[in-house]
Amino acid sequence: MSKLFSRDSWAEIIEALSSNWFRTLLTAFGVMWGIFILVILLAAGNGLENGVKQGFDGMATNSMFMWAQTASKPYKGLPKGRRYNFKTGDVEAIKQNVPNLRFVSPRNQLGGFRGSNNVVRGLKTGAYNVYGDYPEIIQQQPMDITSGRFLNYSDINDKRKVAVIGEGVRTGLYETGEEVVGSYLKINGVNFMVIGTYKKKSQNGDAEEAQKEIFVPFTAFSQAFNMGDRVGWMAITAQDGSSITQLKEQVFDVVKSRHSIHPEDSRAVGNFDLFEEYSKINGLFIALNFVAYFVGILVLLSGIIGISNIMLIVVKERTKEIGIRRALGATPWSIRAQILLESIFLTIISGMAGIVFASFVLVLVNFAMDGMDTSEMMFLNPSVNIGVVLIALTILIISGLLAGLIPAQTAIKVKPVEALRAD
């Protein structure tokens, strides 16, 4: 073994591969390109995953949003097609009857898409989404308070007419540099004092609209706009270790029971399961990684075939040399090991060149993105971790062995007498 890794062995490897530089470089390019494609595809998939998950940053992904629809089946003498509304009592009933829930946040809303102007400040007016919420909503949806504070339970208990406005509302209703906290807005004719401003990420790709929202206490909203005990919809979050997807049927059962809805009526309660959608996204990226490995290894395989072919040619060119070595007592193992070592050496050198080239490209891409606002981008920090590099190296070593296997077997079949007669 020591002889195998001696200076003479390495000199022989270098001489064999450098005897025809152009041929060796063309062969090595196939492996280099295969590893380059593999690393770039994995990095691109990672960058896409980072960008998509950035949109969920700070958001309670183990959540669902639920709203009342119409009953699609008759039940207990009540007709199908009837409308109903959630009530504040439903919130407490859900909390008491469904275990492992972290938040159950009722919400009411004014305004919305294509709504009319509903907010006035002095001579300025605007159409904005106005939400009646509980303080927990800030833990369920990402939001950065840029001045003042968010809603608290004192606001809820005292039914304070206070509001937290988005930076888009500030821009639309206030002059540049004008003090916002402590000022008053008139929402549908009712005065609310501004106690804070926020900025948040878009959840649907419209960053500008995400800043044009106003949050007021749920209780003050219900009182000011005559909502009574009605609830427009709810944001429900499960505790860590539990899945809202598994718990939501229990939530629906509580609501159906309280509103005399048929237990098998699947259309009466509308919902958007964020956890389910988030799980699908995770599954998508697992599939993308599989595709990246599959495509990268296929491209790499073409390079390995090229190396195997070049090693067969090298063995043929060195037939007389191999014969002489066999005649002088070289064992089949030493001949086989020499050919395998040459194959592995060429594979690893070309593969490492591919990794270095791919790393250089990724550094350039990340450098270009450093000066860009990536907060709303679907692509962020394309990179690969050390584990991927180790996997690539493992693939290279195995590939080198496979590439040299056939040429090595061919080499040990050379008979010394016939080899010495060869031209």
TrEMBL record:
Query: Would you tell me the protein name for this molecule?
Result: Putative ABC transport system permease protein
Which keywords fit this entry according to its UniProt record?
Cell membrane, Membrane, Transmembrane, Transmembrane helix
- PANTHER family tied to this protein: ABC TRANSPORTER PERMEASE YTRF, MEMBRANE COMPONENT OF TRANSPORTER-RELATED
What positions does the domain ABC3 transporter permease C-terminal occupy? 294-415
**Superkingdom, taxonomy of origin:** Bacteria
Where is this protein localized, as stated in its record?
Cell membrane
- Please give the start and end residues of each transmembrane region: 21-44, 290-315, 344-365, 385-406
Q: Does Membrane show up as a keyword for this record?
A: yes
Mention one GO molecular function: transmembrane transporter activity
Q: How does it sit in the membrane?
A: Multi-pass membrane protein
Q: GO CC terms for this protein?
A: plasma membrane
Tell me what organism the protein belongs to: Constantimarinum furrinae
MacB-like periplasmic core domain mapped to chain residues: 24-251
Q: Which family does it belong to?
A: Belongs to the ABC-4 integral membrane protein family.
